[in-house]
Write a structure and sequence with these properties.
6 helices, 28% helix, alpha/beta
Length: 212
């Protein structure tokens, strides 16, 4: 039996599936491959977590709070290594003033000196020698013969300028405050006078009193 031309040249179809359905499946499969490949190609690139820039942290500079304390000038004389004027930070003590002039000499009578007392601007510290009368330390411990203490409610501005740390301007302010606000009732009332702070008041306490 002779074969027909169509039977000799045509490829064999898959058993049980028509030729047209097989071609459709091939086309569909190819289309899916193209779509998946296109989606993978255009996927957004996410940088690794460690490569992402971190937000900057701004640190505000720390500013100084309040003005710096004013220095005080003290005259130190007597039994010290280098008598003279010294400039010290406000709030300094007698011991600091003595140390600033080289320290006390071996013949100094330091038992008469209150080394812990605060110093004030314009103060004169006369460190006594051994055997001297305690009045030699009058600048450190004001006594009856020194004119101290000064009555804040009776002294005029000239008498007030004799207080260590009180100059002409500050003395006038004390008098003006007393005249406009009435007599001082306590030492702490001096804090209401412009120019007098806690440090200056501490240096004035041994030299003033509040009379009634």
């Amino acid at each position: 039996m002779s074969e027909t031309p169509s039977e000799r040249g045509a490829p064999a179809a898959a058993p049980g599936m028509p030729v047209s359905r097989q071609g459709a499946l091939l086309v569909l499969g190819g289309a899916l491959v193209v779509v998946i490949g296109f989606a993978l190609w255009n996927r957004p690139q996410v940088p690794p977590a460690e490569s992402r820039p971190s937000p900057e942290v701004m640190v505000a500079p720390v500013s100084a709070v309040g003005p710096a304390p004013a220095p005080v000038t003290v005259h130190v004389s007597g039994a010290v290594a280098a008598p003279g004027l010294v400039v010290l930070p406000e709030g300094s003590r007698v011991a600091d003033a003595i140390g600033a002039v080289g320290g006390a000499l071996s013949g100094a009578e330091l038992r008469l000196v209150n080394l812990a007392a605060p110093v004030a601007d314009g103060m004169h510290l006369d460190i006594p020698w051994a055997g001297e009368h305690p009045d030699a330390a009058v600048a450190l411990s004001p006594g009856a013969g020194s004119g101290y203490p000064v009555d804040l409610n009776r002294a005029d501005h000239e008498a007030l300028t004799g207080i260590p740390g009180v100059g002409e301007v500050l003395a006038l302010r004390i008098v003006a405050h007393r005249e406009s606000h009435g007599p001082f009732m306590t030492m702490e009332d001096l804090l209401d006078v412009p120019g007098i702070g806690e440090g200056r008041l501490a240096g004035m306490r041994d030299y003033v009193e509040v009379g009634r």
